[in-house]
Design brief:
By secondary structure, the chain is of the alpha/beta class. About 25% of the residues lie in helices and about 15% in strands.
Length: about 350
Amino acid sequence: MSAGHCPGSAMLLIEGADGTVLYTGDFRLDKGAASLLPALHDSFGGVKKVDHLYCDTTFLTRKTMNIVSRAECEEEIVEQVKSHISRGNNYHVVLKTKAKLGYENVYRILYERFRMKTHVRAEDAEVYSGIPEINEIVTLDNRTQVHTCWRSVQGGGLQDKNAAGLVSHGGCDTLNRPGVEVKVIHLSTMWFALTENKHTSVKVDSDTVRCCYSFHSSYSEIEDFIRYINPCYAYPNVLPMDATMEQTQHLLNSFLSKRADDASPELCQTNSWKSVHEIDSWWIAEKRSTNNTGFSSPKKPKLENEDNGSEQSTPTGSREATPELSLWSDSSDLENETPADAD
């Protein structure tokens, strides 16, 4: 199923004799979107039973309770671009992004509205060349008025750094030409979260504007998704900013119709369940050895052939709960901005 995170991102639904697991990976789904996914429903339209949900919890934090929808953000970006490029051919826009790829729907909308392709770096164009739907809306021709071939830089000393604090990563010299007026549209989420700003966009100065654009679901969207799926158990894929594992698991449990810690032992009494949760315990034990705030996994149901004193110990290991790595983001991760670099 589409995860709505970026082109090609997918959620995995694994169904078997021992139960069903749903793994979201990174995802961004609007409220109510789960009801539109056929794979989550049976032939009668009812929601399939999900025993274990592993969910993207990047923004499961009160600071990101609500994030404006992508549709709203995209409309704001269109208006910001229109207000600038309509002034003449020497007025260009730079979409300042934190990730290498993932903004393709923005390029699509700009192409549909203005019949104008977005200038990208050669390495990005090479990736897009194998995807016809995207390849037709991007270009290596720097005469277009919309660019995403420039990146922000820290410090000085670079010959091709322009007045907007950007440096070309694609050999584009358009923005340094005399008479060219540049408007920078910074697509970001973390700055809005850190400042708890609820607007779709914020004007920074005369030629720079921030637009909130998120690849991950907000707190309220995560809650809506989990309450709709109503799994037996839910687990975090990633640790939100300024949150402990215990806090994150507690929030996930609060979204379930019945707390995982108090769930009926009849829900999952298979050897496969036991095997899976020995792995979970390994992960948790390792986190506890490095962080005293580790969370407790859902209580393992007692199996019929278990004695009261036969509980297995949880070995420690080297597995860590780290965010997924992806070719879609560069070394400065998409959502890991700090107040200092969220500019």
